Amino acid sequence: MATARALGRRRKRADALLRWFCLAATALGLIFLASILATLLWRGLGALDWAVFTREFEPTTYGDPDAPRGGLAHAIVGSLIQTALGTLIGTPIGLLVGTYLAEYARGTALGNAVRFVSDVLLSAPSILIGLFVYQSVVLPMGGFSGWAGALALAIIVIPVVVRTTEDMLTLIPNTLREAVVGLGAPRWKMITLVAYRAALPGIVTGVLLAIARITGETAPLLLTSFGNSVLSTDLGRSMASLPIAIYQQANSGFPDLIAIAWAGALIITFGVLAINVVARLVLRARL
């Protein structure tokens, strides 16, 4: 009996110690996150005005306090176009591959090989993806282009959607699949009408994570769409983007340009937040 009581006390102490470690780690993470957001708001809000959204980059105005300020309209439009195209290209491919791995290729050699390649691609540095697209698309096409940037972002999207789709479909009980098939429904109908509906919140989360990742990517776009300082919607030419504009202006050394870079970082952060909130609200209303 004494041994059992001593063992119980030791387990309680270990549980309390682990709980305090978890709380301390959570508090430390929240402190870092809050400090980043506070710095972003402090530095970004001061430079955020309508000129940021409506004007293009105007290098001749910086350093002159009386001249009209330039903005990030060209970069915002370019980022929206490339991010939307990258998501539209990568999401269906990732969804179909994840469905294949979860529903058709469990335990098969081909499924394991596809899963391994997807995991490698998921952890690969984004600059390698940019270099791959540069060699396979930019050089043969004879120059940088918005299409190349969108393709690089799509390649980044694919493994994220593959992993989340497979994981969410794997969590669905097999009894649910058997019940639907037992009623006479074909397998494809079971997947599209039942499995997808049950896994929809997790799949949407994966897509949102992919969007959040590609929205802030700089390295692959430097090697593919390269960026420019004018507003352009021509996907066959170099195209501006917010990450590249932030990178260039933050390293310019001019206080005005650095302030605009902070405003761009704030736009990216709250843009991703807005996408997440809207998607959650729409998803909740549908379910």
Automatic annotation (TrEMBL):
Similarity field: Belongs to the binding-protein-dependent transport system permease family. CysTW subfamily.
Gene3D superfamilies per record: MetI-like (1.10.3720.10)
InterPro entries, per the entry: MetI-like, MetI-like_sf, Phosphate_PstA, Phosphate_transprt_permease
Domain of life: Bacteria
Entries under Pfam families matching the protein: BPD_transp_1
Chief site of localization: membrane
Protein name: Phosphate transport system permease protein PstA
Places the protein is found: Cell inner membrane; Cell membrane
